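Reopening this ticket.

The earlier resolution said the output was attached, but the attachment link was broken on my side. Pasting everything inline this time so it's all in one place.
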Amino acid sequence: MPKIIPIRDLKNTTEVLKLCEEVHEPVFVTKNGYGAMVIMSMDTFETKLANYADDHTLPDIDSKIEDLKECRKNNPHHRELYRKLEEGFKDIADGCVVDAFTAMKERRAKYGL
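Inline output:
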């Protein structure tokens, strides 16, 4: 089950860092009940990046999508967050992904950064 916190909890950076290190998974941050961002510890990021680099796919995406559908039904306050996560996993399954370096290059060019 994903860990979800409200954006106001980010004021206590020490506790948020501790949470990220304890759960070893991304932590989803909401604003007014809607998904706003995802944060994780550096170790979790490096592990996920290494796993992705090894096989270029997330394990069992169909299972993840089904889990998110179930979470969406059972958590009406976070319905939109789960819908967006489900949409993201479907994009990955369909191959609609761009590596971070390409995405950043495109954004810099678009906004003149």
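Reporter confirms the inline version is readable. The chain has five helices and three strands. The chain has two domains: 1-56, 61-113.
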